[in-house]
């Protein structure tokens, strides 16, 4: 009997309640599962007390694998690693995912962590487990770093590998019913990933560091087989795409959309990640397929209404491209989630100048989003504050301008979504951005009520919720129409309600 593999996906955000499939862990399990290893996937939606489960399960496990983005997942990951080592001193602790990939050596300095896997994880994890079983070290496995007799060993990077011949995703490893959610576009939605990487060079983005501007996509027939299996086996009717950029290969994207129509699939796709310039210039056939396959939404890094910011982040497009793209979406009835970024670091400026520039970025982006949201009441804005990620082109600029880089893994756990990270962004700017993005934009989107209501089962609670929702929606609309972002009492009340609500 093979020894067990324990994998953990910590909670990414204090307000975000994990409800979806821990897809990074499903993906890294492919080869191990095929070879018959018992695998225990742990996430907060799968276990009432994930840390207790880790304590128990670690006693008989060969390894504990942790997946972490930069931010709060690190806190949960360290806690789990400590618990596992206390329960079983021989267990090997392996970290993978985005943060270990952007800052591998510092991650390995943590006393509880034995091995770090950079980049694409499935084959590397399998190879590492084989070596552990044989009592050998990890020499020659690309993307692996490890500690041995107090010394750090670093293997060369792993290049993105085609996933076409890989074993299928082992969905059976989790209780799918705990990972199916109501969304705006489907009653049974699950997340899925059809490609890895991105060929573009946005200077703030970890893709550039981790996948070195490479991209691999699963072939269209295999994607369609997966969708069909999700529909027929698990009765899924909506799929949230987690690809970094779905439309890299337009021929492939068209074949997938056309396949959905030709095979008569009723499953709807949502949140397909696309670039404004590329999609604004795409031919009508792609747009018609998006419409005819009933694709719900596109997630677009519009980034800014300020051309200087777009140039500094190497977005390789003009603000005007965002307008052309938004117009196309309106024409074809596709909802858009426009993601934007403010507080961009720019060399040769004082902090005061950068604070003023941040004000300018906020107001030009608000004007741009104001227009886009008026195109379709379902359109959604998102506004984030720039966060420096190691290895990205803008990181050194941020450090030169005074960003205090954490010297230990723990320090990165505090890089929370709407917190101010850089000295030129003021607390007031951070508060405003957070309120606009996580509160006002949520209530302006007329489809929010569909998923929010859909996740409450008790009819009385549902009625109360709809009543409170309508009041908040009116206030948020008033704030947006008059651009009133001061005295955020309603926002504080909303955060309180959100913290204390278990279903949303
Ligand atoms: C879904 C998602 C989220 C979800 C939750 C994700 C979760 N893990 O629970 C939510 C909405 C909460 C979220 C929030 C944020 N996210 Co996010 N998110 C994503 C997204 C779109 C998909 C993640 C995913 O599941 N991918 C699919 C899986 C299969 O790929 P993967 O995670 O890379 O896993 C592979 C490898 O990394 C590795 N691997 C992963 N885990 C493990 C574990 C082990 C043991 C091993 C060996 C290997 C391994 O193997 C896997 C298969 O090859 C990614 C972009 C992307 N395409 O990955 C961004 C991404 C991860 N997010 C990012 C960011 C910046 C954020 C935010 C900060 C803000 C924002 N603008 O979105 C917030 C805040 C999070 C925080 N720190 O508090 C960045 C990460 C940067 C970084 N250095 O961490 C990404 C890469 C987007 C980007 N290109 O900038 N996000
Ligand atoms: S921001 Fe989007 S387009 Fe730019 S490099 Fe990252 S994934 Fe690619």
Report Rg. Answer: 23 Å
Name the quaternary structure: single chain
What is the CATH third-level topology name of the largest domain?
pyruvate-formate lyase- activating enzyme
Given the structure, what is the number of helices?
A: 21
- Biggest sheet character: 7 strands, mixed
Assign the CATH architecture of the largest domain: Alpha-Beta Horseshoe
CATH superfamily of the largest domain: tm_1862 like domain
What structural category arises from helix and sheet content?
alpha/beta
Order of strands, main sheet, comes to 2-1-3-4-5-6-7
User: At the first level of CATH, what is the class of the largest domain?
Assistant: Alpha Beta
Hetero compounds: cobalamin, iron/sulfur cluster
Mean pLDDT: 95
Instruction: State the helicity in percent bands.
Output: 40-55%
Supply the number of structural domains.
3
In short:
This protein is α/β, with parallel strands linked by helices. 44% of the residues lie in helices and 15% in strands.
Please characterize this protein's 3D structure.
With 504 residues, the chain is α/β, with parallel strands linked by helices. The protein folds into three domains: 4-154, Rossmann fold, CATH 3.40.50; 180-386, tm_1862 like domain (pyruvate-formate lyase- activating enzyme), CATH 3.80.30; 446-504, no CATH class. Helix content is 44%, strand content 15%. It is built from 21 helices and 16 strands. It has a seven-stranded mixed β-sheet with strand order 2-1-3-4-5-6-7, with helices on both faces. Helix 9 packs parallel to helix 10 and helix 18 packs across helix 20 (459-482). The mean pLDDT is 95. Bound molecules: cobalamin and iron/sulfur cluster (SF4). Iron/sulfur cluster binds next to helix 8.
């Amino acid at each position: 009997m093979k020894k067990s593999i324990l994998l953990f996906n910590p909670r990414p955000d204090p307000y975000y309640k994990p409800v979806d499939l821990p897809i990074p862990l499903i993906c890294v399990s492919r080869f191990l599962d095929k070879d018959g290893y018992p695998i225990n996937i742990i996430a907060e939606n799968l276990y009432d007390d994930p840390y207790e489960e880790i304590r128990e399960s670690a006693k008989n496990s060969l390894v504990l694998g942790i997946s972490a983005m930069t931010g709060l997942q690190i806190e949960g990951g360290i806690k789990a690693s400590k618990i596992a080592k206390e329960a079983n001193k021989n267990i090997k602790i392996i970290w993978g995912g985005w943060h270990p990939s952007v800052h591998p050596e510092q991650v390995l300095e943590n006393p509880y962590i034995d091995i770090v896997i950079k980049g694409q994880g499935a084959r590397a994890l399998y190879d590492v487990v084989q070596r552990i079983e044989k009592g050998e070290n990890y020499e020659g496995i690309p993307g692996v770093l490890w500690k041995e007799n107090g010394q750090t060993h670093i293997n060369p990077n792993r290049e993105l590998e085609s996933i076409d011949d890989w074993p299928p995703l082992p969905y059976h490893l989790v209780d799918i019913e705990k990972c199916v959610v109501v969304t705006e576009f489907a009653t049974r939605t699950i997340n899925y990933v059809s490609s890895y990487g991105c060929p573009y060079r946005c200077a703030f983005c970890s893709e550039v560091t981790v996948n070195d501007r490479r991209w691999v996509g699963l072939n269209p027939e295999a994607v369609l087989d997966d969708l069909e299996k999700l529909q027929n086996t698990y009765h899924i009717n909506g799929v949230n795409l987690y690809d970094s950029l779905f439309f890299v290969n337009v021929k492939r994207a068209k074949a997938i959309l056309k396949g959905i129509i030709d095979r008569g699939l009723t499953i709807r796709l949502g949140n397909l990640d696309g670039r404004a310039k590329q999609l604004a210039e795409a031919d009508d056939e792609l747009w018609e397929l998006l419409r005819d396959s009933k694709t719900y939404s596109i997630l677009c890094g519009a980034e800014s209404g300020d051309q200087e910011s777009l140039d500094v982040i190497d977005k390789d497009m003009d603000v005007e491209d965002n307008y052309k793209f938004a117009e196309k979406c309106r024409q074809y009835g596709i909802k858009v989630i426009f993601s934007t970024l403010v507080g961009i670091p720019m060399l040769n400026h004082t902090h005061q100048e950068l604070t003023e520039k941040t004000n300018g970025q906020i107001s030009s982006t608000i004007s741009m989003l104001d227009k886009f949201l008026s195109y379709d009441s379902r359109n959604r804005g998102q506004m984030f504050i720039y966060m420096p990620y190691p290895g990205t082109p803008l990181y050194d600029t941020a450090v030169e301008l005074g960003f205090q880089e954490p010297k230990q893994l723990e320090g990165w756990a505090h890089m929370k979504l709407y917190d101010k990270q850089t000295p030129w962004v003021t607390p007031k700017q951070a508060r405003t951005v957070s309120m606009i993005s996580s509160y006002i934009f949520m209530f302006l989107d007329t489809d929010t009520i569909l998923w929010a209501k859909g996740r409450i089962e008790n009819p009385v609670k549902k009625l109360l919720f709809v009543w409170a929702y309508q009041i908040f929606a009116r206030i948020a609309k008033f704030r947006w129409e008059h651009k009133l972002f001061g005295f955020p009492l309603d926002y504080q009340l909303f955060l309180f309600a959100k913290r204390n609500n278990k279903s949303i």
